[in-house]
Amino acid sequence: MRRVFKFLLENHKVKKIKNRRSAWMRNNMYRSKLKQLFVEWRTIAHDKFRNKLKVENKQRWEEQSQLTLNEFAKRVDALVLYKTQLQARIDHERGEIDQLMRDYEGSVAMGTRTLGQETETLA
C-alpha cells in the first residue's frame, strides 16, 4: 500500500510538473505571439503616422508658400501702382517745368526786345 501511495504521489508530482510546463509553454507562446502582434501593430501605426505627418507637412508647406506668394504678389502690385503714380507725377512736373522754361524764355526775349526798342527810340 505504501508503495502504491508513493507511486501515486510521485505520478501526481510528475503530472503536476508536466502540466506546469505545458501551461508555461502555452502562456509563453501566447505572450510571444501577442508581443509580436503589438510590435507589428506599433510598427504599422508608426509608419502610418509618419506617412500622415509627411502628407500634413507637405500640405502645410504648400498652404504657407501659397499665402506667402499671395502676400508678396499684393506687395508687388501695390509697388507697381505706386511706381506708375510716381511716373505720372514726374511726367506732369516735367511738363510744368517745360512750360515754365518756355514762359521764362519768352519773357526774357520780350524783355530784350522791349529794351532794344526803347534804346532805339532814345537813340
Shape by Cα distribution: rod-shaped
Series of H and E elements: H
What helical percentage do the residues reach?
A: over 70%
Mean pLDDT: 92
Q: How far apart, in Å, are the first and last alpha carbons?
A: 177 Å
Number of distinct helices: 1
What's the β-strand tally?
0
Structural class by sheet pairing and helices:
mainly alpha
Uncertain runs: none
Radius of gyration: 52 Å
Largest sheet: none
Write the layout of secondary structure elements.
Blueprint: H1 2-122
What does this structure look like?
With 123 residues, the chain is an all-alpha fold. 98% of the residues lie in helices and 0% in strands. The protein has one helix spanning 2-122. The radius of gyration is 52 Å and the shape is rod-shaped. The N and C termini lie far apart (177 Å). The model has no long low-confidence stretch (mean pLDDT 92).
Keywords, separated by commas or semicolons:
123 residues; mainly alpha; 98% helix; rod-shaped
Short description:
The protein has 123 residues and is mainly alpha-helical. 98% of the residues lie in helices and 0% in strands.
